[in-house]
Amino acid sequence: MTYQTQETTLDRILQEISAVGRRLEGMDSMMASLTEETKLMLLDIAVFQSRMTSLEQRVTTVEAQASSSLDRDQELLYLCSKLIDLEDRSRRDNNEGGAKKLVRAGEWESAASSLQEAEV
Hints:
Residues 90-120 are annotated as: Disordered. Helix content is 93%, strand content 0%. It is mainly α. Helix 1 (3-92) runs antiparallel to helix 2.
């Protein structure tokens, strides 16, 4: 092998090494870009999870309020039905003695008071 052939071979090897080095630099740049994109995606996921947690808390609050409202509505319905029953009995007993009317009046006051408390 002559000196010139060795020099040409070395030049080709150096060119290939340079080409590999450029490819590696390109890969480093691409990896850095992917790392940044991954960080942004993880940040987006964290924000999404935070929003989901907030929504879950709101849903829980609304469910509790709805349950409380339903209980209150059921109590109001019960008290209204009790008032209707008292009114019906009062109509039937309208022609009876005064003592019975006083008892009915006390029941009305008690039922009306319960209804007012339930509405508050």
